[in-house]
Write a structure and sequence with these properties.
The chain contains 9 helices and 9 strands. With about 250 residues, it is an alpha/beta fold. The protein has 3 domains: about 120 residues, Rossmann fold (3-Layer(aba) Sandwich); about 35 residues; about 80 residues, no CATH class. The strands form 2 sheets. A 7-stranded mixed sheet has the order 5-4-3-2-1-6-7, with helices on both faces. A two-stranded antiparallel sheet has the order 8-9. Strand 6, helix 3 and strand 7 form a beta-alpha-beta unit. The radius of gyration is 24 Å and the shape is elongated. The protein starts with 13 loop residues before the first strand and ends with a helix.
Amino acid sequence: MKEYPAMLRLEGKRCLVVGGGAVAERKIASLLEAGALVTVISPAAAAAVEKWAETGRITWRCGRYGEAGYSYTKDREGSDKGRPGTEASLYPDLSPYLIVFAATDNPQVNERVLADADKAGKLVSVADKPDSGNLIVPAAVRRGKLTLAVSTSGASPALSAKIGRELQERYGPEYEIYLDFLAELRELARSRVGDMPLRHELLRRLPNWRVLDRIAAGTYEAWRASLLGRFQAAQDSEEAFAAIWMEADQQ
């Protein structure tokens, strides 16, 4: 089956995770990092999931999917929004959710979640059978603005994880600093160079700069400060700005 790779921006988007164990915990952690609004349905939850519910970071609807239970969540000030014993349907309306994750240890429940989400036209990811849903979450390595994702289309999550570990070793924490610098210089070029072909050429050269070598050598901060100072001094001249840029490209 053919797939379309994409990055999702989930800030403020509602997502449902069915399950509360270790697998669900990892899904929830990634969703929270992305700024999603997470609802969890599970009769029990890992300690971290309980903590997130207690601190108002997620909504935990405590019960089995499709059965009655109660909603347990607190706002950020700690006041109760739900208490044990308050009946609530856990066969939910899926319409508010952008993505549904089936992450229980019960294959039958996961299949039911998949069927319901598919019927509702939702993106759905199934933990124990990743190729059965219409959304496969790849193994990912994050270094600030850099995200490296690996997918085997569900053929071997273990291989995805192995390649992910290799990428983690290859692309270390220095890439977070590096990407911040590239973003800073890109914005600077956009604001200072009106000539589009020239700007394109400058930005094309930027990844070739020896920034990573300077980070490794411990000279990056001093070099960056000097470079930005020179750019500032040339603020009235596009030609002078480009000349400084080209000089940095050769260093």
